[in-house]
Design goal:
By secondary structure, the protein is an all-beta fold. Helices cover about 5% and strands about 55% of the residues. The protein has two helices and 42 strands. The protein has a 22-stranded antiparallel barrel. The protein starts with a helix and ends with a strand.
């Protein structure tokens, strides 16, 4: 993108004061007295306007008004955030400022956008597709967060922060709703103080069940994209003394909805609408997630505190995916993984003598055991079975200090040293014959086997293993100044790191299974944020430049064979602006704008020079705008109208963009989504205890794709495309007590 459009958009952003829901001033328990949201983006409590970072913070009430009920919908509220998945809302891929997993779809890969639940890092991407309920807020940190959040945050970090007991009184809510596609929803929470100012308990739950949103015309076939979710959470908080604060949290959940719809083999798309398929095997996305954490904070004095966060989490996925979009059995996949993880972080906070310091130690362990089955149209019917185990360990020491150079001038210095180890073992794969769901008869070992599939005799004892380790020094340097008006200006350098990875998609041969290099990002950013006219206007603007090396991405080839490769060098730069405007009492206008230039500086795949192509899932322009208007007082309550619009320009799903590799049947121009805007709206009536709300999402039923993958180049006569959700609408009633 040329500099002139960026400059023009920058001026437009300032003149229109476009804005963050990030800066939305929700009435949450964490809101400061002056209305600012208090965030922990720097591992300590600060007003959002005092944090020299690009941060979007969404309170629980704001999420409800915007119709955001699942983590996969966050892209409608955060500039330069894209969310995609080949599995619908399951295993979402987050991409911030163009940095994401690109076209990678295997469950063993770590997201370059770190996802956290109450400051606990969630390693498996399957657990990222969570329903959102009883949240205090969500913090989205854009840009590398390698100092305080750690590895695998080259793109940024998303922290989901749940409500915890406040140790005073009792309160809660119950909510029930009904929507089209015969969808029933219910959620609620109840909090009790067991000992005033000492012990409190909070219990919360979430349920949703509905029919498929994509109609299946196959006789007797199930509709795709149905909903069947149940989640629960228990939080126990104890303060034996003013110096000791302990929060124990346990959660569990499961999802049994049908798979995402697939637009595949073209002859079977004839006569169908966009939100229709003709598929004989619509499978179920079965996922489970559970975990436990203990957050212990100890005040050692007026200026020093210690925090320990210990967690153990687990879960599984069992996704039955018909990946051909037809009544024929061309490609049917069963994705199965079981995961466990443990982490411990010990952190110290010091504030005194013109220095605010955060530092500590971190250890994390995660394990993924995968058993995938790929049914292909082989003569006779058969396919490939794949098994492997991946174990990763991460050790880190970190520290960051904010040093007052003058009364309003602050220098930030931070560093983190990370040592990562990874082992891929107990790996084997074989070629088999057998119908889908029938017993498998192995006929040839493919892993370990360095040659073409079918050339190595079947050996049930054969195993493949390899290991890797990485060391990384990441850090942050920033200078910030706060004017008398309260406006904060800052300039920063951040270095981010994503650990090296092994190809989880190698099952036809062991020759394509190997570790690739870590990703690294050197990020430069300037910005300013503040408030004008009291609470009339809140704004935040940032501009950034990334030197991005070794992006990890998937390259599919005939066979079908998948290779995990590095893109040697990329360049990303852009601008973001967010604002909240309150022109009169009862009216709040939110808007945001994201401009993005992404380009591969050096990349060659399959003999095609892709230098100059745009990165996948990186639209040049994203924008959101909406308002909340308290229209009138009626029946003892307030009637509020809250529409919002989310716009994204064209984005590509493949590093090839519209190019095709020489000598292949690729048709990559199919793998993109054109510019589009979607509108959501809600109308609610709220009294002291009751809220009645009607809503519509994707109001104008825009037909868009959320994900695409090259399968033509892998030897199939079609590409894999996943349509996004159609229009949904409904109503809910909430009672607070």
């Amino acid at each position: 993108m040329a500099a002139k459009p960026f400059a023009a958009a920058f001026v437009l952003a300032l003149s229109c004061t476009v804005s963050p829901m990030a800066l939305a001033q929700d009435a949450t328990p964490e809101a400061a007295v002056d209305g600012d949201i208090v965030v922990t983006a720097q591992r300590r409590e600060q007003s959002l306007l005092d944090v020299p970072l690009a941060v979007t913070a969404l309170g629980g009430d704001n999420l409800a008004q915007r119709g955001i009920t699942n983590s996969a919908q966050l892209g409608d509220a955060v500039p330069n955030l894209q969310i995609n998945s080949p599995y619908g809302s399951t295993q979402p891929n987050f991409s911030l400022r163009g940095i994401g997993v690109a076209n990678e779809y295997n469950s063993n890969q770590a997201s370059p956008v770190g996802v956290y639940l109450d400051d606990v890092y969630l390693a498996p991407r399957t657990s990222h597709g969570m329903g959102l309920f009883d949240l205090d807020r969500i913090e989205v940190l854009r840009g590398p967060q390698g100092t305080l959040f750690g590895r695998n945050t080259t793109g940024g970090a998303i922290n989901f922060i749940t409500k915890k007991p406040d140790l005073s009184g009792a309160e809660g809510y119950l909510q029930a709703g009904y929507a089209n596609f015969d969808t029933f929803t219910a959620q609620g929470a109840a909090e009790a103080t067991l000992s005033q100012d000492k012990v409190g308990l909070r219990v919360a739950g979430n349920y949703a069940k509905g029919d498929g949103q994509i109609r299946n015309v196959f006789p007797g076939g199930r509709d795709a994209m149905s909903t069947d979710t149940l989640q629960g959470r228990v939080s126990l908080r104890a303060m034996p003394s003013e110096a000791l604060d302990i929060t124990l949290r346990a959660y569990g959940g499961r999802d049994r909805g049908t798979q995402a719809a697939v637009h595949g083999l073209a002859p079977f798309r004839t006569g169908l609408g966009f939100f229709e398929i003709n598929e004989n095997r619509v499978g179920t996305n079965r996922t489970d997630a559970w975990g436990f954490s203990a957050n212990v904070s100890l005040e050692l004095g007026d200026n020093l505190s210690l925090t320990s966060i210990t967690s153990y989490d687990g879960g599984s996925q069992n996704l039955q995916q018909a990946a051909d979009g037809s009544p024929l059995d061309i490609l049917d996949i069963n994705w199965r993984s079981d995961y466990r993880q443990f982490s411990e972080e010990l952190r110290a906070n010091y504030d005194g003598n013109g220095v605010n310091f955060v530092g500590g130690l971190f250890y994390g362990w995660d394990r993924n055991i995968t058993d995938n089955t790929f049914n292909l149209p082989l003569p006779p019917a058969g396919g490939f079975f794949q098994h492997y185990r991946q174990v990763r360990n991460s050790y880190a020491v970190f520290g960051q200090a904010d040093i007052d150079l003058a009364e309003k001038l602050v220098l930030t210095l931070g560093a983190r040293f990370t040592h990562d180890t990874s082992r891929y073992d107990d790996a084997y794969a074989y070629l088999f014959v057998g119908e889908i769901g029938a017993p498998q008869i192995p006929i040839a070992t493919t892993v370990p086997c360095p040659g073409v599939a079918g050339t190595c005799a079947y050996n049930p004892a054969a195993r493949f293993a390899l290991s890797d380790r990485n060391d990384a020094l990441t850090g942050r340097v920033a200078l910030s100044y706060t004017f008398d008006s309260g406006t904060l200006v800052y300039a920063s350098y951040n270095r981010g790191y994503r650990a090296g990875a092994v190809n989880g998609g190698g099952y036809t041969s062991s020759s394509g299974i190997g570790y690739i290099k870590p990703e690294r990002v050197n990020a430069y950013e300037v910005g300013f944020k503040g408030r004008a006219g009291g609470r009339l206007l809140t704004y935040a603007v940032s501009a950034f430049y990334y030197d991005y090396t070794n992006q990890q991405l998937q390259d599919t080839r005939a066979g079908p064979v998948s290779f995990l490769v590095n893109a040697p060098k990329s360049e990303v730069y852009g601008l973001e602006a967010e604002t909240t405007l309150r022109p009169v009492d009862g009216l709040r206008i939110d808007a945001s704008l994201g401009l993005l230039h992404s380009q591969y500086k050096r990349l060659t795949l399959q003999g095609a020079d892709l230098s100059g192509n745009r990165l996948p899932f990186a639209p040049s322009v994203t924008a959101q705008m909406g308002f909340e208007w308290d229209m009138l007082q009626v029946g003892g309550g307030t009637l509020t109208f809250a529409p919002n619009m989310a716009y994204a320009s064209r984005q590509f799903f493949s590093p090839f963009n519209e190019e095709n590799a020489p000598g292949t049947p690729q048709l990559n121009r199919e793998l993109q989504q054109g510019a589009n805007a979607k509108v959501n709206a809600s109308l609610s009536w709220t009294s002291d205890a009751i809220t009645v709300r009607a809503f519509a999402n994707n109001l104008f039923n825009r037909e868009t794709y959320g994900y695409g993958l090259d399968l033509r180049g892998a030897g199939f006569p079609y590409n894999f495309l996943v349509p996004a959700a159609p229009r949904t609408y409904g109503a809910s009633v909430r009672y607070s007590f």
